[in-house]
Amino acid sequence: MKAVIIDGYVDEPAILGVPPYVSTYIRYAAGALYYHGIDVDYFTIDQVRENNMWQSFNHYEYLIIIGGVTVPGHYLGGTPISLNEINKIFSLNKEPLRVLGGPIVKGYTLTGGRRAIKIESNEIDYLVEGDIEKFLFTYPVSDDFKLNDKSDYNLISKIAPLGAEILKKHPRYPDIIVEMDVSRGCERKNGFCSFCTEPLINGKYRERPLKDTLEEAKAIYNAGVKNFRFGRAANFLAYGSLLNNGDPNIELFNELYQEMAKISDVLHTDNANPAYIVKHKNKIKKLLEIIVKYNTAGDILSFGVESFDKNVTLKNKIDILPEDSLEAIRIVNEIGSIRDKNGIPKLLPGINLLYGLIGETKETFEINKEYLEKIMDENLLVRRINVRQVMAFPGTLLYNIKPKQHKKDFIKFKEYMEQYNHEMIKKVFPIGTILRNLIIEEVKGNISFGRQLGTYPIKTGIIGKYNLLDKIDGVVVDHGSRSITALKYPFDINKATVDELISINGIGKKTAESIILKRPINDLNDLDITEEAKKSLYIIKGGMFYGKD
């Protein structure tokens, strides 16, 4: 028996699955099949596109596509599967059992500001509305299966370690980062946000036993992958709270991070509820201290602020008030804004802002600006701010309501965010910051764009042409609104190209050419360049320093 899994990529509030991320769906589906002795092949949808593999799967017994985007995003490492592509694959491969799973079965849309549509196709044998791993675990050995069945952590403990083997078949192996599952659902007991798909997809809040989490992590490590992200949680900081009367579980976090640090090159997290942070302020600070002690720099706690407009938060049942959001940002900055030896902050908040919500008015945009300016005025750091138009999915409160859209105001706000993000990025990644192991994912002209492995790593344009998937160390020399410019590290003025030199503040083309003509250079004071140019050269850490600082 052979099965093939096609990774159409997922992107949910509590999980990433577009390369270099690998979602739990893929590993658990593979693990369920491996458990029954079924051999599994694995391809990403980008591999299918690039190699024209549309009708290459008729010799398999199982053809499984997993995908679904429930939050809008922009992707560098891959493009999520489209509904047309799903139908194309299934229609050209009629021999195997054709199965569709993942959040896409709850509704399909790839664009924010739109209502999702239900999937309907005669080309699908089984549309699995429950957990794909539960179906694949039951179907091969029993007729007693249900398409809406949920899995539990007893099942996952059996199959997750087995599923680690599928990672070896990823086209970017071993330079991938896996989403680690620690909890499902949302721990809130006072209702859910108007737009949230987490309770729809994952049901009642439950937590995975720590020993099972660590066992799977060790299996992933043994499979050759050492990059982990606690992304599969609506509120990671609440992990273990069911064992601790709802309070943060300091003892559990200490064991989790001590053990994970032993097997990790990258150790990051993602979602955190700012209301939970404020409610448990003192204990949360202890958790944050544990994270900062063991994690990899550049880590983020993503906050579902959604809006700083109190009226909007109340009408959409968002579990945080504006001032509390601001306080949560302060708390994470207090503990996490320290920098590692490369100059990168250890742990910062990220903010999600949504538009198209119930109760939104033109004033909402101004209120959001006011709070963002407060963050800047207090010199607080925010690693990234995602500004999105909400997606409405069947089963959510928002789906049956059509709030008034303010598209012109949204466009103006996005324009405002360009300058705001530019200033914030300059604070987070000042000139001279060193970025290790940037993986090249795109080359345009004489600039190679790469990212580190981690949570929302910043897009970095490195001057020069490098090969795709090369690993390059870079030193920051300039900033955009969504990206930064870097030179290959260590920087050597006696080997630098004209393009590299003119990317440095204070150096134009004529100055760059004069520097090249005077090489070798042993002392910057011998050069007829501005003080700004000298200062820029001095602060490029790791470069060849000349003269006195």
Automatic annotation (TrEMBL):
KW DNA repair (keyword) present: yes
Domain of life of the source: Bacteria
Pfam family, one: Radical_SAM
SUPFAM superfamilies (alphabetical): PsbU/PolX domain-like, Radical SAM enzymes
Alphabetical list of InterPro entries matching this protein: Elp3/MiaA/NifB-like_rSAM, HhH_motif, rSAM, rSAM_horseshoe, rSAM_sf
Keywords: DNA damage, DNA repair
Chain ranges of the Radical SAM core domain: 172-423
PROSITE patterns: RADICAL_SAM (PS51918)
Identification of the protein by name: Radical SAM protein
Species the sequence originates in: Marinitoga aeolica
